[in-house]
Structures are given as C-alpha cells and as structure tokens.
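Please supply some protein, with fold tokens.
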Amino acid sequence: MPEFMDVHRNMNGITKEALQAAHDADVAIQSDESVEFKSAWADPESGLVYCLSEAPSADAVRRIHERAGHPADEVHPVPIKV
C-alpha cells in the first residue's frame, strides 16, 4: 500500500501528550478508510507536525485527519524511501 507524509501547521506549543492524543484519535478510526498511521513527529516551536501513514490514497488520509479533528494542511506521497 502507498505511504504518505502529511503536514499540520500552526500547532505551536504542542506537547508530547497532545501529539499522542491526536495520533490515538486517528488510530481509533483509521480502519474506516483502510489507513494505518505509523508515526508522528512534532516541533512545538515551529508548530509543525508530520505524520507517516500507509493508505489507499491521500484523500483517505485527509478524511481521517478531518474526522479526528486536526485536518492536514498537506499530504504528500512517499514513492521512494531508503
């Protein structure tokens, strides 16, 4: 299944606990769209959050994030990784 990296902006001051809660909210409903969220990273200072997932499409990733209450600003395919 394809992988995607998505970006959330303006999450300044996000804590590890808040990141975990957001990730858990995605995971709780990810099967509705056949998405598997693998990891999430955050920089509280810049407000950037990144999530890596496997999904049938970028739209599936978007829909899960929107339903979980934190829409992604960008979703990018990851066609090559090492």
